[in-house]
Amino acid sequence: MDRIHLKNQLELYRTPYEEEAEFIVDFIELTQDPLAFKRERLEGHFTASAWIVNKKRTHTLLTLHRKLGRWLQLGGHADGHENLLEVALKEAQEESGLTSLKLVDETIFDLDKHIIPDRPHVPEHFHFDVRYLIEADINEPLKVSEESISLAWIAFDSVVDMIGYNPSILRMLDKTSKSEILL
């Protein structure tokens, strides 16, 4: 049922961002693959992420990813679980230790198809990342997991200085600033 729900959400998903709109069809087609939610699909597979913001929408929580060495949103592999919203929330809690996580909206916040570089025992492949907007208490203590080097709440106006140019993160940042009605 979750696969069907995801397909329905993807079919309804609209974005004004051209780079994001270009791969919506790829996401819809992937829902038909029996291995779509498993790492064993070596060409690429679904992942889920949490774009975590504070209630006032001034900061986002990012992780310095241990394997990739880059500042990213929290998230991870579905590992066979077809409810990507649950995957995003689980990964966010595991990677941050936060208990104050609150889903802002059950609909998809952002989509990104990106390449993961070749590593020992893992060939280069695509992540079809489905992202959800989640709110958390900026004052709650963070717990760095083994998947991260560091965690940090980063002010929106400092994100570019911290991460450099990452169009996917900048797109989510832009979407957040345009969604102030959700406050």
From TrEMBL:
Residues 43-176 form the Nudix hydrolase domain. Keywords: Hydrolase. GO terms for molecular function: hydrolase activity. Pfam families: NUDIX (PF00293). This is NUDIX hydrolase.
